[in-house]
Automatic annotation (TrEMBL):
Localisation: Cell inner membrane
Function (record text): Part of the tripartite ATP-independent periplasmic (TRAP) transport system.
Record-stated family: Belongs to the TRAP transporter small permease family.
Quaternary structure and partners: The complex comprises the extracytoplasmic solute receptor protein and the two transmembrane proteins.
GO molecular function: transmembrane transporter activity
Protein name listed in UniProt: TRAP transporter small permease protein
Alphabetical keyword list: Cell inner membrane, Cell membrane, Membrane, Transmembrane, Transmembrane helix, Transport
Membrane topology category: Multi-pass membrane protein
Residue ranges constituting the Tripartite ATP-independent periplasmic transporters DctQ component domain according to the UniProt record: 23-152
The organism of origin for this protein: Pseudorhizobium pelagicum
Protein's GO biological process: C4-dicarboxylate transport
Pfam families: DctQ
Length: 177
């Protein structure tokens, strides 16, 4: 099961690379066409904005899985093991609540977005803003799994240390930057 999950996240990382590459190519091509030939591709303006939205929200799920979001490690480092676990539990409960609200907001907005079309591509706006379903559900699932492992005592010392920012080697910090 873990291999399937890891493969899923590798596919997401590949998708992020493709989105970023596609966005860079479209923007670069449009700049060259506008300044060099006084023309441009209207679709690329719109699609590059949508790629950026998808890149941001898919990347948020990947970053959350890898514990790469901003944390308040300086405060958490002051606590012992029990205090850190309590902070981890509270943090995951807050994350679940906020991500649940985000998912619910996307759900409530979906009928409106489904009836609106993008100006140039005529793409339904649910394809753009519907990424909130993936992000909200993805973060809730990850946080629920973490919360379950915390409450059942299956959290490792490495995870607790990572939450407090203690096991950050120079290489790991360079990867997060």
């Amino acid at each position: 099961m873990q291999r399937a999950i890891d493969l899923f996240y590798k596919c997401l990382e590949l998708l992020l690379i493709l989105l970023l590459g596609g966005m860079a190519i479209m923007v670069f091509l449009n700049v060259v066409l506008r300044y060099g030939f006084n023309s441009g591709i209207n679709v690329s303006d719109e699609l590059s904005r949508y790629f950026f939205v998808w890149l941001t929200f898919i990347g948020a799920v990947v970053a959350f899985r890898e514990h790469s979001h901003v944390g308040v490690e300086t405060l958490v480092m002051l606590f012992g093991r029990t205090g850190r676990i309590i902070c981890m539990i509270l943090s995951n409960i807050i994350i679940i609540a906020v991500s649940g609200i985000f998912f619910w907001g996307t759900w409530k907005q979906a009928p409106i977005n489904a009836t609106m079309d993008a100006p140039v591509t005529q793409l339904s706006m649910i394809w753009v803003y519907g990424i909130g379903f993936f992000t909200g559900a993805g973060v809730v699932i990850i946080a629920l799994e973490r919360l379950l492992r915390l409450l059942t005592g299956r959290v490792t010392e490495e995870e607790i240390a990572a939450f407090a920012g203690e096991n950050m080697s120079a290489n790991h910090l360079a990867e997060r930057a």
